């Protein structure tokens, strides 16, 4: 069985820590078994390893999340990159074409799809393993996992099985109900309805045949070229609701969607992350990513979140409304993780004559490097403030240390490698100042050393 983990999200529900570049699954606010902070995606990837599924898994994501995934899970994690964000049906279709035409998976092999960020026990993934046999034994087109509800929630969708029991461990699905009222949810639970946790499986042939019926190519390279033609719609609406033979495996263990601040803070091991104090406040959490202290006094049942993207002070019960509250905020992400480290925007100024100045603080992990690159529209000045490294400019490599100021004209080829953890202040000048203004010459430092020379 192959696993496809879907990594998407717009980054609005856990604002200001989440943004378009750092969705909720990448926030390091949970604790691992060693007491260190970890993200949801790191937690799930470790759990897959615990039950022997990591080697079968691939992550489907957009280009904007690749660096973040590699930063948190390593450079070798298998990734299928969507050319653009469209929705879960296009993402799953592209992943299926990849498994079929690139990895050469047999069309009779079972593929399981799940979100990259469920908050569950390890045995949930043992249940995921059961999907393979369920698909093969039941003959169903789709096999789902349904969580046995612990209360009548209006936040989740429900899978309603038929009244007749099955010969196996699974039930036939009658229909679906999306986010009912609490009263309706209570009625559904009496009928044996299960929470829909977004996990399902199918034979690869089911998706490949579906793509062929719709007139889309099943070769990965060709589907990438036509990706914008795929309907921008969820897999639930495009496939699940139109499929007649569906079965569901009940799961009776712990499952939670940490999609809002009130649910996320329930699973945090501490009520404070970052600099500050919380006093005379019950059930209040502080998450502070800035270097300035934040004091919370006498404010109960609240979330206080501070990041370069903004400041949030909210009653936890109101936190599900945050997405609609900040939906019109239109600014670039002020913090991003990359494969080599991270950067934080410190200041941005646009002058009347159109010139722009952008100031960043950049952290590069020891042993990592920025690519050997050039920019067409901007010049840069780097000031090393911490650590030691090697800097290359137009083919010449030299050592750098704290206090060094490095000038990089427009069009100059440049890069840097951190020998120890290194931080620098970068001041960009030009227009337009966009992340896409980059031409990469070499990605690895081995290539830099091969084709460039050390200064004498």
Automatic annotation (TrEMBL):
InterPro entries assigned to the protein according to its UniProt record, in alphabetical order: Man6P_isomerase-2_C, ManC/GMP-like_b-helix, Mannose-6P_isomerase_type2, NTP_transferase_dom, Nucleotide-diphossugar_trans, RmlC-like_jellyroll, RmlC_Cupin_sf
Q: Where is the Mannose-6-phosphate isomerase type II C-terminal domain?
A: 338-441
Q: What is this protein called?
A: Mannose-1-phosphate guanylyltransferase RfbM
Instruction: Indicate the segments annotated as coiled coil, or none if absent.
Output: none
Q: Which residues form the Nucleotidyl transferase domain?
A: 4-269
Sorted alphabetically, which keywords does the UniProt record give?
Nucleotidyltransferase, Transferase
Name of the top EC class for this enzyme: transferase
Q: Does the keyword Phosphoprotein apply?
A: no
The organism's taxonomic lineage, starting at the top:
Bacteria, Bacillati, Bacillota, Bacilli, Bacillales
> Which is one GO molecular function term here?
mannose-1-phosphate guanylyltransferase (GTP) activity
MannoseP isomerase/GMP-like beta-helix domain sequence ranges: 275-327
Q: Which species?
A: Geobacillus icigianus
Enzyme Commission number(s): 2.7.7.13
Instruction: Write down the Gene3D superfamilies for this protein, in alphabetical order.
Output: Jelly Rolls (2.60.120.10), Spore Coat Polysaccharide Biosynthesis Protein SpsA, Chain A (3.90.550.10)
